[in-house]
Amino acid sequence: MLRVLITGANRGVGLELARYYARHDWSVIGVCRSASDELADVAEQVVEGVDVTTDSGVARIVEAVKQTDGIDLLINNAGVLQDEELGHIDYDSLRFQMEVNAYAPLRVTEALLPYLREGAKIANITSRMGSMADNDSGGRYGYRASKAALNALGRSLAMDLKPRGIAVAQLHPGYVKTRMVNFGGLITPEESALGLATRIEALNLENTGSFWHSNGEELPW
């Protein structure tokens, strides 16, 4: 059976991805800070109480994966969005967003490398707000910088892991109606999850390292 591990799986896009893969007969490992009944309904294994920015949190994920025969898909979905106002920037907030949105996916990926099966894929859930070329509105300093950093790290992972047959994608979920944006998005989590899963299905060693919108549009760096 194919197995997927999803961080930030207890709600929003992460939960809908868990539901999608469970419906398609994948074994789902859902990683989260706080478990939800909805996740427990679809995941074969729930790893809760995990802070992906810490060594101990990542170790909990590794211990869970050790109980399996490996994973075929890693979805680094956990993320955080905070806002800043120029002239009153909270640099602790910037550092926190960088830890969660950029460094944590790299931490998790590196720790799970020994458990990725042949032909495995990695999907980093990023944002088009991490695009330099697409930024025509400014603001969101911590979020933009952390997602741009995630894009850079993901691109390096794609190059380093290509010889091992592991493909990596940076995927923008769209403007999704989730708690992160006070449910003010344009598409539902279900629509986003379907688009993301479609992009993951199309991911291969020829297009590894690319930056895609869930609707199929290739995004500029």
Q: What does this 3D model show about the protein?
A:
The chain is of the alpha/beta class and 221 residues long. Helix content is 39%, strand content 17%. It has 6 helices and 7 strands, in the order βαβαβαβαβαβαβ. The protein has helices at residues 12-23, 37-42, 55-66, 91-112, 141-161, 189-202; strands spanning 3-7, 27-31, 45-47, 71-76, 116-125, 167-172, 211-213. Strands 3-2-1-4-5-6-7 form a 7-stranded parallel β-sheet, sandwiched between helices. The longest helix has 22 residues, at 91-112. The protein is globular, with a radius of gyration of 16 Å. 43% of the residues are buried. The model has no long low-confidence stretch (mean pLDDT 94).
Shape label: globular
- The radius of gyration is 16 Å
For the sheet with most strands, the description reads: 7 strands, parallel
Spatial order of strands in the largest sheet: 3-2-1-4-5-6-7
Proportion of β residues? Answer: 15-25%
User: Structural class of the secondary elements?
Assistant: alpha/beta
Number of strands: 7
> How many angstroms does the end-to-end distance come to?
35 Å
Number of helices: 6
Order of H and E elements: EHEHEHEHEHEHE
Proportion of residues in helical segments: 25-40%
Mean pLDDT: 94
- Low-confidence spans: none
Which features would summarize this protein structure in a list?
221 residues; alpha/beta; 7-stranded parallel sheet; globular
